[in-house]
Amino acid sequence: MTNISDWMYSDIVKDHFMHPRNVLTDESTFQPDGKGIIGNIKCGDEMIVVIKVDKEKGTIKECKWKTYGCASAIASTSVLSELAIGKTLEAAYHLTSKDIAAALGGLPEHKIHCSVLGDKALRAAIDDYYSRNGMTDKIQQEQAHIICQCLGITDAEIEHAVLEGARTYLELQERTKIGTVCGKCKEKSLHLLELYKEKYFKT
Ligand code: FES
Question: Is 150 among the catalytic positions?
Answer without folding.
Answer: no
